[in-house]
Structures are given as structure tokens and as C-alpha cells.
Specification:
By secondary structure, the protein is of the alpha/beta class. The relative contact order is 0.19. Helix content is 31%, strand content 23%.
Length: 213
């Protein structure tokens, strides 16, 4: 395992990436883009702990368990500047409109340190991005990753949807999956699921998906 600090937040917290494997397809697993979605963070950290004990895949997997460390620390959706990182990426549909403070897109696209680090990381030729969130149970696909999503759906019973159902300007799925041809799965774990059940249910589904790559 290699540990890298991609950048530091406005509060000075490290944005840390953990790399496993040295050959094969490159996979990026993200947790904590929204700091109050603790289910995704718990899933990412469980995968990290498992890989630290045993890493069996012919793949290069990078895990960023807390992509928004300030938000995770403060238990809030946004970063410490009040910006929703999943509305701040420089997509063609980015909008300065502030529908609510919860979805604040920031003063300009890519204004936030966390997203600047993520955009730089995405230049590393990833085959697939798996972004762990929590909301209603759904697996949202952007780009050519339906096969991978079907594995997750088989093991979780979650539905697969190519449209989350409402506008998401400046989001990762659009930035990576649709505009840069980096297949991206937004994995929405059921909000409020007990953490022990999150760990029991979702990392095994992700392990099965990784076996297919």
C-alpha cells in the first residue's frame, strides 16, 4: 500500500489516497464527497481496512475514504466553505444558481481545493470511478459501466438508473462519466442504514464487482 496526501483543505486536513496494486486496470473508490453521508464513508473505510489485511486483485485500486474531510469532520454535506462539492465541478452544465445553501455550487466551477485535487487525480487514466454516497437505494451509472452496476445490483437488490431524477449541474457523474469518458458509478447506499449492516452488505458487493474487472 502507498499512502498519498493529495492536498489539504481550508481547515488544513489532509485529503488522503491509499493505493493498492501495481498493475492492471485503475479503479478509484471515493467516499465522503458529502460529509454527512456517513454510510459511504463507513463503506470506503471498511474496504480500506480489508485491503490492508489482504489485497487479492490484479488491479490498481485507489481509495479516498474522505474526499471532503472538513465536511466529514463537521458532519455536513458541504465543505467548510459551505460549497457542495458535487455541484462545483467544471462541467458544461455548471450553474451559479443557488437553489439552496445545501446545494451551493461555489463562486465558480472548480473553486474548491477538494475538487482541484480530485480533478488532478482523475488524470491518472482510471478505468472506473465508484463514488459512495447515501440517499435512497439506487446505483446511478454515467458512461460505460452497466456491467459493473449489474453486479452491484445483483448483490444488493438495488435498482440501476442512468438518471438520478433531478438536475445535478457540476456533478462528478457528468464531469467524469459523460464528459471525459471515465465510467462512473454513483452508489447511493440507503440513508440511515445501520453501519454494521452497511459493512456487512456493501463491501462484499464491491469485492464481487472488482472480480469482474
Amino acid at each position: 500500500m502507498i499512502t498519498r496526501v493529495l492536498s489539504r483543505t481550508h481547515l488544513g486536513l489532509p485529503i488522503t489516497a491509499f493505493d493498492f496494486g501495481s498493475q492492471g486496470k485503475k479503479i478509484l473508490i471515493l467516499g465522503g464527497i458529502h460529509g454527512d453521508e456517513i454510510e459511504g464513508v463507513a463503506c470506503a473505510k471498511a474496504i480500506l481496512a480489508s485491503f490492508m489485511e489482504n489485497y487479492p486483485y490484479p488491479l490498481q485500486v485507489t481509495i479516498i475514504p474522505e474526499a471532503n474531510p472538513d465536511g466529514c469532520l463537521m458532519n455536513q454535506r458541504t465543505n467548510s466553505r459551505g460549497v457542495d462539492l458535487n455541484r462545483n465541478l467544471p462541467t458544461k452544465d455548471w450553474s451559479a444558481e443557488i437553489k439552496s445553501e445545501r446545494y451551493h455550487p461555489g463562486p465558480s466551477p472548480l473553486s474548491e481545493i477538494e475538487n482541484q485535487a480530485l480533478v488532478q487525480e482523475l488524470k491518472n487514466n482510471y478505468h472506473l470511478v465508484l463514488s459512495l454516497h447515501s440517499w435512497k437505494p439506487v446505483i446511478n451509472v454515467n458512461g460505460n459501466c452497466l456491467k459493473e452496476a449489474e453486479v452491484l445490483a445483483k448483490f444488493t437488490g438495488y435498482s440501476i438508473d442512468q438518471d438520478i431524477g433531478y438536475p445535478t449541474p457540476g456533478c462528478l457523474g457528468t464531469y467524469a462519466g459523460l464528459e471525459r469518458n471515465i465510467p462512473t458509478i454513483t452508489y447511493e447506499i440507503e440513508r440511515g442504514q445501520k453501519i454494521d449492516q452497511v459493512i456487512k452488505m456493501h463491501p462484499p458487493a464491491i469485492y464481487e464487482m472488482l472480480k469482474t474487472l
